[in-house]
Prior knowledge:
This protein is 81% helix and 0% strand. The radius of gyration is 19 Å and the shape is elongated. The N and C termini lie far apart (52 Å). It has helices spanning 2-20, 26-49, 56-74. The longest helix has 24 residues, at 26-49. It is mainly α.
Amino acid sequence: MKIAITLILYALAFVWGCSRLTGRGSKLQRLWFGCILAWCVYVNICGITETPHFNIATVYTAFFQPAGRVIIEWLGG
């Protein structure tokens, strides 16, 4: 039930937001707006169902943190 309500509210936000985006370049703005809302839906539903999800911290933990450790060891620290 929470997921259905969440999807309905995000759909309403998308329709309302797209109606507010008018003028020159509005198609690209609508695309970005839709992508941001889709990401928000993904993160929100993962939070509701308590499933792991990808975010910015995942990229840091997977790539930059090990690279930093290698560099620190390489420099003798």
